[in-house]
Amino acid sequence: MALTLEQIQENDRRFLTDFHSTGVWTHEYAAIALHHEALRLPDDTLLDPSDKPRVQMVIVAKIFAEAVASMETLGKLLQAIRARHPDGIAYRYVNGTEHDSERGLRLFRRPPTDLLQVLRLPALPEVEAVLPEPGGVQQTIEAMSEHIQEVYAAYLEPRPDGSEAKSIVRAYRHIKHGSCLVTDPRTVAIWSAQPSPEDVHILTRWPNAQESNEHLELKSVSMREPDVLQNIGICKLASVVGSNLCQLAVKLIDAGLLSYAPEGPNAGP
Questions:
Q1: pTM (2 decimals)?
Q2: Which end of the chain, N or C, is more open, meaning fewer C-beta atoms within 10 Å of its C-beta?
Q3: What are the domain boundaries of the chain?
Q4: How far apart are CA 97 and CA 148, in angstroms?
């Protein structure tokens, strides 16, 4: 039996409330915890000293992976909010795929972008009416759009010709499923470049018999503290935007302003 609109709204309210408080923050929490462990490595007495450099390399790669995962989470949430007809945001998010992450972030690839219009949310006056402190709502919405555009650029790496590099997406997949971390590229293939000792190299493509070694593809992730903290910062940025979107959607549901029709208010293209 199909759910009623009231049941869908209640499901979404529960999901978004919980996701706002915990779900969107999981990648930032994990990245911070990993970073704390990395800082403790020099004084760790349980590890063999010879293992510590490799442990640090894995931790840095995992923090990078959490940063990429936070971008995917945000993209998936954006797509679930926009495509909420007919089953609701919770259904679309939980049953979404990795392609939904790309679709959600691509909605913001051409600035300036009206977040409310793109996500098929009510117009600004209605949004201001449901927020307890309406002052500065427009600036907040614009800032969120700009942050999402930053995440899109970092995640899909658009090129001038309109294509997307997606190098961090491939690297993330390999960290999750293949763990193709390379200490020194010269140990696995003929490699003319001088690898940086301060980078973790993630092998994402191996040349076939018809290709030269130049087709070996590595994504290098810096182990320098400022760069690691930047990845943690990406997690936080994506988490804050996602949390704010969840809170806004809940308030719109409570006010009866969130349309579940095929084309909601201010429907985008």
A1: 0.91
A2: N
A3: 5-160+238-254
A4: 19
Position 113: which residue type?
A: T
User: What is d(CA 2, CA 7) in angstroms, rounded to the nearest whole number?
Assistant: 10
b (16+ CB within 10 A) / e for 23-56? bbbbbbebbbebbeebeeeeeeeeeeeeeeeeeb
Alpha-carbon torsion (130, 132, 136, 142), positive or negative: negative
| 71 band by pLDDT with thresholds 50, 70 and 90 | very high
DSSP alpha helix (H) spans, the chain = 5-21, 26-40, 52-82, 89-94, 98-106, 115-118, 124-130, 137-156, 167-177, 225-254
Residue 75 tokens, joined: 């993209």
User: What is the rounded CA–CA span in Å between residue 67 and residue 237?
Assistant: 10
CB 111 within 8 A of CB 146: yes
3 state SS of 77: helix
pLDDT at 238 over 60: yes
Specify the amino acid at residue 224: R
